[in-house]
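A protein record pairs a chain with a discrete description of its three-dimensional fold. The following entry can be read in just this way:
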Amino acid sequence: MVRILVGTMLEVGRGGMTPDDFVAALAARRRDSAGPTAPARGLTLVRVNYAQDPRQGTRPCLGMPGSTAAPGHPTEMEAPCD
């Protein structure tokens, strides 16, 4: 799934899809609505940070602002948590 999401986001970045197309593809929940699958090379989940205790029903936040990247990974995508 991550490879499909990344491939679809790359398609948006290259101009093959609009951001609205991306949202529509997610809403459609159909593989044929998405872009190409990104190759497996280079995709690594470095860390999952939790805003609060996950046992209390909070969702994971990938790359929370203020967190540091793992050694060997100089950057980290920041995504705000609700």
Remarks:
- The chain is about 25% helix and 5% strand.
- The longest helix spans residues 2-13.
- Residues 63-80 have pLDDT under 50 and may be disordered.
